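Hi L., both proteins are below.
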Amino acid sequence: MPGGGRLRFILDLAGRPPWWQMALDEALLELVSRGESEPALRVYTFSPSSVSIGYFQSVEEAVDLEEARRRGVPVVRRFTGGGSVYHSEDGEVTYSIALPARGPLADVGESYRLLCTAVADALQSLGVAAAYRPPNDVEIGGRKVSGNAQARRRGALLQHGTIILDPDYEAMEALLRAPRAKLESHGAASVRERVTGVNRELGRRIDPVTVAEALRRSFEEKLGLETVESWYTPRELSLARSLKEKYRSPHWLHKR
């Protein structure tokens, strides 16, 4: 484990558009990589409900854009890899963590194991039997509850991922074009067989703040870092504002 130092904890559950959330995540990675920001863990939500796709995906192959337009669901391309994700305004929380990629975090596979296990441990503390499934998922009973993706820059990494609370299967099936081969590789014939949610497994509702605090405690323990409540620095907000237009642009969305 990396050990030592501080991890800023940013609780931002007001709900913000997808282009702003991606801009903030990239700003954190960039400034941590320059040594101009301390490592940070933030927990946030999307508003309105949105779709994000991985950096390497074709948007037309990943998302039904006409259906997204009809529903008023914005679509954004991430700067991290991975697949397409439906971010339900009321049915999930998202976390991101930006920190130097030192020690075990220098290795991509080991960093996924360490950080995704922290997510799984947080969910276990809430009462569900969550487990890390390589390379970058967390599952409950073989069903995905958290998908995670990374980007690296100048010796730093950012990993972000969803924590599904209440899966909106109808929206997922209508908006996301999940390749059948990928579903079948997980022994599932449909999104409903592949995905679950914390509240669904518990049979009761968990408050997003409770999830955030569980993540905070788990990352603190796994990384050996002291978490301190924090907020975005003026430099982070300024850089995010300049990056926001990239994430709003059709050129970025349709680059693949």
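That was the first. Here is the second:
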Amino acid sequence: MDILSAHATAHPTKAALICGDDVLTYAGLEERACRVANVFAELGLQAGDRVATMSFNSIASFEVSSGLRKLGAVGVPVNFRLQGEELAYILNDSGAGAVCVGPELVERIEAIRHLLTGNPVLLTLANAPTPEGWLSLEGRMRAVSPLIPAPPSEPGTGATMIYTSGTTGHPKGAYRPQGLPVEQVLQTIELFTLRTDDVHLMAGPGYHSAVGFFASLTLACGATIVIMPRFEPELALQLIERHRVTTTFMAPILLQRIVDLPPEVQERYDLSSMRVIVVAAAPCPFSLKQRVIERFGEVLWEFYGATETGINTVLRPEEQLRKPGSVGRAAPGHEILLLDDEGRPVPEGTPGEVWVKNAWLATYYNRPDATAQAMRDGYLSVGDVAYRDAEGYYYICDRKVDMIISGGVNIYPAEIESCLAGHPAVADVAVIGVPDDQWGEAVKALVVLRPSARATEEELIDWCRQRIADYKRPRSVDFVDELPRDQAGKLLKRQIRQRYWATSGRWI
């Protein structure tokens, strides 16, 4: 069954998408998605072909993704911060037969056009300029039939491919040829208590797997999405009040920016409609959770997962303050193993690499070697490390690649970052290992202070000394103006480490 067609028939005049003053109903989205599908069919694309989209959040990007689903083609959302060879790599590696580009990004693609292999069709979205050799998707849509194309025969929700952030080497395409089983989608909707009458704020970038997934769940419910092309904290509050928003997904950094607004700004808006705030994508400090709950009430959900493995654990609103630092228990239908380096299960309270088995698992597109390396007896790992308590709650320590080994002892930076984030003067923090002749690596903290706040290196080290084991405390602190993060809010640890390791002759 085509869920978009069903919603368009059941409630044709209901708003599906809102962006600024523009509103597209379910009937309107259905018609324009059919036109998109027919445009790509005329261009020679068919089920299984890949189409890349690089755009800020927009109604047009939803029209494209909905049309590709009707055609059975594979949508490949592309990080709009990429450029040059890193951008060309993803377009080439995905084998994209077409590339759809938003108005602000056409020049970015035109600049690497000579690097593209396979001669993909280049299409502009909305009112973007159309350079020589490009096509206007809007112009082509006006010339094709609005009738529903023949539906693809594959089961599931439609093929997806999302590129991982590439913390090591080139990014890899996490590929699901049939998308997700429908029963998994329905189970997730029920798990997070999503409803037909919801209004969902799409605050983060759509190329991020969780942002796109929760937007897709909203459309699957027949609910309404309010689109933010790019995130602005006060605008988010304005939209929540104006549209009586009930649900959203945000990375911790976005929630941080909201609760860091002056109290008089926050109090200007009625936020009482909000009932589900989902946080993930990066560690969420306990102090931040406390501030969010104080502002919005007991509406905060957290999950742990990955692009390749989906949503693996869930921490419900009533558990947030009772289980500090936890990301919850295993989600229904998910099996989780914590294994040591020899593949043996670790006891409760002992960190181990996280291995997940479920119906969500993706493979790496055209990378059977990488898929095999990440798999063990049907379980997949992305290199995260966690421990489990006696009640079955999981605590993510860190990524295995970020782990610090000092004097032969494993130290997980996320725990130290969470401790420092609780200091009232700290706005942002990253903890890394730096070269040390005696210990191999020494723990260093890079700290961004809040405006007008003051703190010394010794004060912050002492703060940690009182709260975590002494071997984990930073041996030094560097104060910086800003820490590099990707659009999803993840710290770019490799970039941070580079200046400290570049002249050491080694990287571990």
